[in-house]
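Changelog-adjacent note: as of this version, every example in the card shows the full chain rather than a window. The one below runs 176 residues end to end.
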Amino acid sequence: MWVTLASCVLGWLYPVMWMRDRRKKREKDILRTLPGYLDMITLCCQAGLSLTGAIAQAVQKGPGGALGLEFDRMMREMRTGVSRMDALNAMADRLDNKHIKSLVSNLTQAESLGASLADTLSAISDQRRTERFQQAEKLAMEAPVKMIGPLVIFIFPVTFIIIFFPLVMQFLETQR
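Full-length structure tokens:
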């Protein structure tokens, strides 16, 4: 009976945990590849391509991954007749990521105001890269704090045993 109950609980919880881990991994992959895609799109826009052509080139030549698949899906939606901004908004809604939503809103605003998309993309790319670097620095600063627990639990006791064992043995011999 207990095995059946444990199997039911595990069968209920494991898919939820698996999907959560997959979603986190996918979001991390998207954030990791976003500056590269933005650089590639920016370069193509500066070379004279439209935003749609630049995204198509980035999808074709860029690294694979979740963001590439989403840009590819967006391009397919645009080929079926959806406007570029509607396709971008749909992509932002699907990904549900604040950085992608910010990118889409900035592109929408730049296009509506007639600003240079290449300059806008360049600024966004620099900002994303800076945020990524700051996140890496934050994680590096947290590493020593996370190491204290294993250090205190595993390394310090062994060190004290190695140092004090000969002293205790010598003390016990002198007491006899």
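Structural remarks: The first helix runs from residue 2 to 46.
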